[in-house]
Give the backbone structure.
Amino acid sequence: MTKEELQKALQEVEEQRNQLKEELNKLEGTDETAGDGVVTMATVAKKALHDAVASGNLKNILDKVSSSIDFAKTAVTSFSQIVEKAQAKMDGKIEEITIQGGMTVMSNMWMPMVLGLIQTQEFQHIMANMLVKIIKDA
């Protein structure tokens, strides 16, 4: 083969290579860059996942989600119990709860109860911790 024939054959191979690359890119996703340094969306996603796992960020995010789900479950369960008690009271099934000193809890006692809760050391520490967390995250 002559030099010209080899160059022509090489050019045809290059054209086929480029066509195959384009077809492959279509199958893998959209290109972020063109040319020989083709980066697909799948490649970007894999790198981002690798970085998130390696740095521990993914674990931290999943821990926060898990914690939030636990809090949400507790809140939903509590609201469900409140609704159940309200339904029982509407049906005339009144359950009386007594507090220290044997007094029955009345519907007009919610404010003194909340004020009593706010005055406890435990509640104040919890609220202080929440406030610090909110300020730090901001």
